[in-house]
Write a structure and sequence with these properties.
By secondary structure, the protein is an all-alpha fold. The protein has one domain. 83% of the residues lie in helices and 0% in strands. The protein contains four helices and no strands. α2 crosses α3 and α3 packs across α4. The longest helix has 27 residues. The protein is elongated, with a radius of gyration of 18 Å. It starts with a helix and ends with a helix. The mean pLDDT is 86.
């Protein structure tokens, strides 16, 4: 059963790569997404090590970086607010 799932994963990944490589719009989307991802990680890194918000540190994990990529600056405020209220 595991072999079937592995083959299905490989085939679907290859087909997704073909679709992305065929479309020119996909390259533009991929480039913009990569730039937003790098900017979000850099912003969270600078926020953690600059000491702007004393006593709070936002972890660099896929959930927090994804939130910041999706929402931008309000995403950072959302993560900080959630961390402040939950901890």
């Amino acid at each position: 059963m595991q072999t079937i799932w592995l083959v299905l994963l490989i085939v679907s990944s290859l087909l997704l790569a073909v679709v992305i490589l065929r479309n020119q719009i996909s390259w533009l989307w991929f480039r913009r997404f990569a730039l937003h991802l790098i900017a979000a990680a850099a912003a969270l890194y600078l926020l953690n090590y600059s000491g702007v918000v004393p006593g709070m540190e936002v972890p660099l994990n896929p959930a927090t970086i994804g939130t910041v990529v999706l929402l931008g600056l309000p995403g950072i405020m959302l993560v900080l607010g959630l961390q402040w209220t939950l901890f």
